[in-house]
Amino acid sequence: MAVTEPAPAAPSAAPGRPGGRTAAGGGALEGILRRQSLRESAARTYARSLPIVPVRARGLTIEGADGRRYLDCLSGAGTLALGHNHPVVLEAIKKVLDSGAPLHVLDLATPVKDAFTTELFATLPPALAADARVQFCGPAGTDAVEAALKLVRTATGRSGLLSFTGAYHGMTAGALDASGGATDVRVTRLPYPQNYRCPFGVGGERGAELAARWTENLLDDPKSGVTTPAGMILEPVQGEGGVIPAPDAWMRRMRAVTAARSIPLIADEVQTGVGRTGAFWAVEHSGVVPDVMVLSKAIGGSLPLAVIVYRSELDAWEPGAHAGTFRGNQLAMAAGAATLAYVRENRLADRAATLGARMLGRLQGLAAAHPCIGDVRGRGLMIGVELVAPDTDDPDALAPPVDPALAATVQRECLDRGLIVELGGRHSGVVRLLPPLTLSDEQAEAVLDRFADALAAAERAHRPGPPAYDARLRNDTGPSH
Fold first, then answer.
1. Directed axis angle between helix 348-369 and helix 441-462, to 10°?
2. N or C: lower Cβ tally within 10 Å for the chain?
3. In what side-by-side order are the strands of the sheet with 373-379?
4. Are residues 317 and 358 in the same domain?
5. Cβ-Cβ contacts under 8 Å for 475 (sequence gap 6 or more)
6. Alpha-carbon distance values, 210 to 217, 252, 267, 274, 285 (Å)
7. Per-residue DSSP letters for 414-427?
């Protein structure tokens, strides 16, 4: 059974004031936000769309400095598998602190690291765990992506890389290349299958088949200009790309394509891992066993931790070939081991599959009444709602154009109602829901109720209405015309 918490009472909304700030906490809150805007870089992101100052949190709920409570469906961009400050995580951290164990150990062996690695291997696909190595990287997922790219390039002696349109693998140079955020001639970007905006205009199984054939032809055509690469990296569900699940058959096809050509397959499970999609690891939906898995976010139990796990035959590194000062974060390993064990023992992946399907069903019902919802999709508790401008003037368009302005308004209206959501997709037109795996049925209903109310309010704000009534336009002394 998942640990649940009472759903907080709906906070009163203050129109036009994100978060509905109270007068008591408003002054201090505004001061903190003002100083942040003056001191922090222009690259800050979440702080712009979510102008709140969290001071306490537990489970799904965040309390701001203004005293308002919010239902957090961002979960640290998927980092908080168990929500905020889960008791098992706090106990694991406290145990390490009270033990007097060193907190910084580089890559030395410790009992805490051994326990984490043992628990991690217990959750991996058995065919990988039986013959795997693990590399502790820097603290972020993008560091693990860089390590994976370096690993396969070292092991194969090749430099090229295959990645997919819409991908997101991090913000460092190599990760940006793989994500399409930079131009690196060593990276070849391939079509990622999707139904709603299929790159081939057909969607479904046919679209996935064409995407697979495209990849095969590109690799096998001696005139394609693409030499055999060092690896292929993909997300089983594209998160930042708009919550687009890869078809299971296509995943198996990519595994077959890469295996037949001795191309290591890298699965980026930074956001999809630890039960998020309804399986412990998202590759398990398709039965695919990758050569390399990139893991971060939830594996640290809310603290910074990133690793890659890979087949031993790829372990061609020399000592020191990939290092980093903060590879031995003992608190993160303790919190991570506790999180992995809790998700596994309480079957929270199964819970995510069941509850996620129920939430998708209700959102799809909502779409039937709201033409601005172009598509509802996801897997487990990784859900996306794409918002569109339905009255398009292009009769040949496969789907209505995305409406990022409406999506931003929905996000603001959600915040006014005490609900934190994120935006994603090509043009930030997809509202994303990433609640913790401990979400209760009652909390799920509260999330959906607030989202539905916010959507209706955003629609009203964007929809041209009838002209306002003006008494001066009516002659009250005679019959109206």
1. 30
2. C
3. 373-379, 382-387, 430-433, 422-424
4. no
5. none
6. 10, 14, 21, 31, 21
7. HHHTTEE-EEESTT
Place of tokens 């003037």: 393
**3, 438 contact by CB (below 8 A):** yes
Task: Decide if 196 contacts 375 (C-beta within 8 A).
Answer: yes
| Confidence grade of residue 175 (pLDDT, cut at 50, 70, 90) | low
**Above 60 in pLDDT, residue 234?**
yes
Distance CA 339, CA 346 (A): 11
pTM score, two decimals?
0.88
How many Cα neighbours within 13 Å face the side chain of 20? 18
- Say whether both 326 and 365 belong to one domain: no
Task: Output the furthest CA–CA distance in the chain (Å, rounded).
Answer: 95
99, 57: one domain? no
Q: What is the DSSP string of 308-324?
A: EEEEGGG--PPTTSS--
State how far the alpha carbon of 224 is from the alpha carbons of 153, 186, 217, 221, 274, in Å.
21, 14, 8, 5, 38
pLDDT digits (tens, 9 = 90+) for 289-314: 999 999 999 999 999 999 999 999 99
* Domain match, 106 and 196 both: yes
One domain for residues 281 and 399: no
Does residue 140 belong to any structural domain of this protein?
A: yes
Q: Is 128 helix (H, G, I), strand (E, B) or coil?
A: helix
The span from the CA of 137 to the CA of 2, in Å, is 31
| Gap between the Cα atoms of 266 and 472, Å rounded | 70
Q: What percent of the chain has pLDDT over 90?
A: 72
**In a shared domain, residues 363 and 226:** no
DSSP state at residue 354:
H
| C-beta of residue 384 within 8 angstroms of C-beta of residue 242 | yes
Mark whether 339 and 357 lie in a shared domain: no
Q: What is the average per-residue pLDDT within 317-332?
A: 88
Percent of the chain residues topping a pLDDT of 70? 86
The reply to whether 5 falls in a domain is no
Q: What is the extent of the structural domain holding 453?
A: 23-40+51-72+348-462
The answer to whether 164 and 191 are in contact (CB under 8 A) is yes
Report pLDDT digits (tens) over 190-217.
Answer: 999 999 999 998 989 999 999 999 999 9
**Do residues 111 and 459 make contact, with C-beta atoms less than 8 angstroms apart?**
no
Where do we find the tokens 């000062």?
Answer: 325
